[in-house]
Amino acid sequence: MGTLKSKINIMILTQKKGSLILGSSGFLLLLSSLFFSPQDELLLLVASMLMMVSGSLLYFKKVYGSSLAGIKNDGVWFNALTAEGIWGWALGIALTGFYVAIYWFPEVLGFNTNGTSTGLVQVFDPLSYALNGNAATQWFLYGTLYTTAILLFGVKFIWKYRHNRYQIIRTLSVMFFQLCFAFLIPEILGKLNPETPYFAKDLKNMWPLNYYFLDQWHLKNMLNGGNLGLFFLTFGLALMFIISPILTYLYGKRWYCSWVCGCGALAETAGDPFRQLSSKKISVWKFERWMIHVVLVFISVTTIAVLWSFLSSNSTMSWFSREQFIGGIVIFILVVMALLFFWKTGALSKDAKYSLLSLGIILIAVLSIQAFSGEKNILFINSYKLQKWYGFGVGAAFSGVLGVGFYPILGSRVWCRFGCPMAAILGLQQRLLSRFRITTNGGQCISCGNCSTYCEMGIDVRAYAQRGENIVRSSCVGCGICSAVCPRGVLKLENDRLENRINSENYPLGNTL
Ligand code: SF4
Ligand code: SF4
Q: Most CB atoms within 10 A, among 11, 67, 399, 461?
């Protein structure tokens, strides 16, 4: 019996090694195009992708699919990849290097602006021609690899959490939105409408995550983009002002951060082995609160400033003056401030104060824009430069380089936690006005700490569970992992009436801020 068991173990180990070798060989084959321009790019693309996909799927099947269902996080703190060890650092440096090349040195990957790329970018030419009718760019290469990673690691995630229906459906959802909405539909629409100027065609990527949605050039391109452009403009505005607030009220920010968003999709799937690395320190939580409000103020002021300057430079918008625009914004901010001031007291008073402070700063900035800005300058700064700084600082450096490159060092949701303006807005609404909460059955908690360990947003879930307190936090993305890893069924993600959802008491226990 013992011999049979050891034979089976050796066989499984051999199969794991074999599948790892197959997947790695495919990856190396693809990377070889960085050094040798391929003769037949289609053959190289198909062969390398097939090897990578089949090798990875076989490996995941052996590790997760062939064993009993249930959480398997064995040894995460003793592994050189998942515990900030040598392999973690190596992966972090490689990912960061890849992002630096994509954003600032695409020629290293073979990209050529005249459409005759070589190297790694050239390998993706056949797929790019088939989908959008043009030669591949570094962004097409990135989009394809990004989507492939979400799909592959999504399958792994489903195998790993297959005992949990919430995790299965949520993961299928992010895989679907990434593949169809973020990748295939925009590429195909680009091919079908070659005459229209460029504008983002990812229906789910709304402002402020898509930080250039309200930029002058983007608005102009949508206005000049025929019916398709007008549809994307109208849908984008409806998403911002109607659909998103309603869905966040009903379900919390999880509807977006854990079910739809592409950044969240990568964090949840490829970033899953690193979720325990998010810091749970109170000092980091304090920093997070400041950061998120600063991001909120910055994105609001820059967008208002850019729209303000757009209104004077575009003749089709002559029916709407700058004064009317600023007046409308001021009224809107004052109404929200009044509501916050009168309604949100008691358990929400501290959050309401932070929000009031942020809104007050935005209000002063808006009035200053009207009073002190010239035709090209906004508050004495060139508006074009303002947009470029934001695009560089937040759009590229933070979301890509830090946000993904540092997965193996800082955890999988660094960007979502500290830098994402979308998460900031949805988080404030979740805290102040949403039916979502995680309820805790404190009497059942054995203080094992699994929930806190695997919360990717750095929330000390155990501290709430020990007190039987509901978790109503701005940063919670509703991933449900805390609930999935709890051995006692203490935590439950729920939507219910607003009354009494915050039941905090002043216990001298755990992390309270
Ligand atoms: S508290 Fe739970 S549901 Fe919220 S982000 Fe953390 S692990 Fe996910
Ligand atoms: S995982 Fe469950 S039992 Fe363990 S500390 Fe968290 S709530 Fe308590």
A: 461
| Ranges 213-217, 294-298, 306-310: which has the least confidence | 306-310
Which atom of ligand 2 lies at the shortest distance from residue 489's CA? 2
Bridge partners for 440 per DSSP:
491
Angle between helices 165-176 and 138-160 (to 10 degrees): 170
Rounded Cα–Cα distance for residues 266 and 404 (Å): 9
Predicted pLDDT of residue 458: 94
Mean pLDDT of 465-484: 93
Q: Where are the alpha helices (DSSP H) in 177-214?
A: 185-192
Q: Tell me: the pLDDT tens digits for 97-107?
A: 998 899 889 99
pLDDT (0 to 100) of residue 386:
67
Q: Is the pLDDT of residue 391 over 60?
A: yes
For the chain, percent of residues with pLDDT exceeding 90: 47
Question: Which residues make Cβ contacts (< 8 Å) with residue 219, sequence separation at least 6?
Answer: 233, 310, 314
Contact (CB, 8 A) for 228 and 193: yes
Dist. CA 234–CA 231, nearest whole Å: 5
336: CB partners within 8 A, 6+ apart: 359
Tens of pLDDT, residues 478-509:
999 999 999 999 999 999 988 888 877 655 45
Whole-angstrom Cα Rg for the chain: 24
> Structure tokens of 472?
């109503």
**The pLDDT of residue 359:** 85
Instruction: Report the distance separating Cα 327 and Cα 366, nearest Å.
Output: 10
- Name the phi and psi angles at 67, rounded to 5: -110, 175
Pairing type for strands 436-440 and 381-382 reads unpaired
pLDDT of 375 reads 58
**Ligand in nearest proximity to the CA of 412:** 1
Q: What is the whole-number distance in angstroms between the Cα of residue 473 and the centre of ligand 1?
A: 9
Helix ranges (H only) for 224-321 are 226-238, 244-251, 254-257, 262-269, 282-313
Q: Is residue 261 within 8 Å of residue 209, measured between CB atoms?
A: yes
Rounded to the nearest angstrom, the distance between the alpha carbon of 451 and the centre of ligand 2 is: 6
Distance from CA of residue 309 to its chain's centroid? 29
Return the residue whose CA atom lies nearest to atom 1 of ligand 1. 476
Q: Which residues line ligand 2 (CB under 6 A)?
A: 445-451, 461-462, 465, 486-488, 490-491
**Beta-carbon neighbour count of residue 203 at 10 Å?**
19
* Phi and psi, residue 149, nearest 5°: -60, -45
Which residues are CB-contacts of 509 (< 8 A; sequence separation ≥ 6)?
463, 466, 467
